Amino acid sequence: MRIIDLKHMSTDDKVDFFHTHWGGTKMVISSGIYECPELAGYAALENEKIIGLITYVKKERECEIISLDSLIENKGIGTSLIKAVEGEAKRMGCRSLNVITTNDNIRALAFYQKREFRIREIFHDAVQRAREMKPEIPAIGDHGIPIVDELLLKKEI
């Protein structure tokens, strides 16, 4: 596995990735509306194919992960991508790494907490507000859980 900076990937490859894995390029969360192909980040490649991708933004003394995808589970791809962002965040003088996920995403909640992220805030009904801008967000998520709230997780770095 090789980790590369997204600035070395073509815009078309990034757009294709987000359309395939997110149904579009726009991410709507409590912290803002983002065009993922335009964000900083890293990709994990194997045989020149994308097997993982992470995007983030810097906000003052914090970095926020906007998207994280690992196409092959339990191979260290997500962890390697987070470490790449964490290293860059430290170089930029950030004090924490944040991520927002939805209440149904039990796998993500477990993944982040195992990597020293702590739940810091719940944004009640945030997903309903996001659906006003991105109606394709499903009503029911993982494990049949209604998707209604967002949770902010933070790791001090």
UniProtKB/TrEMBL annotation:
Gene Ontology MF terms in the entry: acyltransferase activity, transferring groups other than amino-acyl groups
Keyword annotations from UniProtKB, A to Z:
Transferase
Which residues does the UniProt record annotate as the domain N-acetyltransferase? 1-138
PROSITE patterns registered for this protein in UniProt: GNAT (PS51186)
Q: Name one Pfam family in it.
A: Acetyltransf_1
Top-level taxonomic group: Bacteria
Question: What is the protein name given in its UniProt record?
Answer: GNAT family N-acetyltransferase
